[in-house]
Amino acid sequence: MKQQIISAATTDTAATNPLVPNVWEMGVVLVGFAVLLYIVVKFVVPMFEKTYAERAEAIEGGIAKAEQAQAEASAALEEYKQQLTDARAEANRIREEARAEGAQILADLKAKAAAESARITEQAHAAIESERQAAVVSLRSEVGTLATTLAGRIVGEALTDDERAARVVDRFLADLETQNAGAAK
Question: pLDDT by residue (tens digit) across 85-141?
């Protein structure tokens, strides 16, 4: 009988379906799963949520910072363009002022040169006139001496009287000037 019992026990276990789980095993597995699920929901998921929120905040902050940096760069670019435009306008203004100043300096120098030229010409004319007067006086005295000597030889008497000699010289020179004036016409 013993053999029958062993064989019946073996047949009982063999009679159970291996695909159907044992109730006690299922209960233990369900309790373990519930504890594990509780731990995951209570501790792990909030940590993931916290990390996710921090990363999302960091990304949004980075995007905001990037947008702000982009706006600052655009403002700086506009300011740079404005400064460049202002600098070009200032350079053009300075260039035009320099041209006008150069033209004014050139005009002043031309006026000074013309004035200096006129002064030098006037001085030259004055010097020429004074030299001409000196030459006329010198020639008068020489011509007077020659004329009195010549007149004395022609007349046959010496003209030693200064007053008479001066009258003869003046008359001789007046005759020469009228002859020259008539020839020049």
Answer: 999 999 999 999 999 999 999 999 999 999 999 999 999 999 998 888 888 778 777
Question: What would the two tokens of residue 176 be?
Answer: 């020469």
Residue-wise over 164-183: b if at least 16 C-beta within 10 A, else e?
Answer: ebeebbeebbeeeeeeeeee
Residue 101 has, within 13 A of its CA and on its CB side, a CA count of 6
- Contact criterion met (CB below 8 Å) for 164 and 143: no
Considering the entire predicted model, what is its pTM? 0.38
Q: How far is C-alpha 18 from the chain's CA centre?
A: 95
For the purposes of burial, counting CB atoms within 10 Å of the CB of 148, is it exposed (0-12), middle (13-18) or buried (19 or more)?
Answer: buried
